[in-house]
């Protein structure tokens, strides 16, 4: 359909920008995964992997220039909801692929899922509905 084709062209143009924000890359990676564009999806995921924060056996993404979290006793840090959201989009992009994700990709996705689950509040929800 021409509307979808034009939208994908717009997204491809945005993906070719030199300096895309990590949040934009996460959304684009998921959009291209849904559209079945494996090359763009892989390129964006490769770029995102270079910006990943690896900590305590998990992986997540945060906004550039963010202050490091305070390491306080008896306090569990919870990331801002936008960081949980963009990390979730990266996870969706990893899991939304045809053919099915390879074992290596599933292993990496499990590290992302570990971080997302660590952000849940005591009631099983998250800091916002985002």
Automatic annotation (TrEMBL):
It comes from the Eukaryota. One of its GO terms (cellular component) is extracellular space. InterPro entries: A2M/Complement_sys, Alpha-macroglobulin_TED, Terpenoid_cyclase/PrenylTrfase. Residues 2-130 form the Alpha-macroglobulin-like TED domain. SUPFAM superfamilies: Terpenoid cyclases/Protein prenyltransferases (SSF48239). This is PZP protein. It comes from Vidua macroura. The lineage of its organism: Eukaryota, Metazoa, Chordata, Craniata, Vertebrata. The gene is Pzp.
């Amino acid at each position: 359909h021409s509307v979808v084709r034009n939208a994908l062209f717009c997204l491809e143009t945005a993906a070719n920008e030199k300096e895309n924000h990590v949040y934009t890359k996460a959304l684009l990676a998921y959009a291209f995964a849904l559209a079945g564009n494996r090359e763009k999806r892989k390129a964006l995921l490769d770029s995102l992997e270079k910006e990943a924060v690896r900590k305590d056996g998990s992986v997540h993404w945060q906004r550039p220039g963010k202050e490091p979290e305070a390491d306080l006793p008896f306090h569990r840090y919870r990331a801002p909801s936008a960081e949980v959201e963009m990390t979730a989009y990266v996870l969706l992009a990893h899991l939304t692929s045809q053919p099915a994700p390879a074992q290596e990709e599933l292993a990496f996705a499990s590290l992302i899922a570990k971080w997302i689950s660590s952000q849940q509040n005591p009631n099983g929800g998250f800091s916002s509905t985002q």
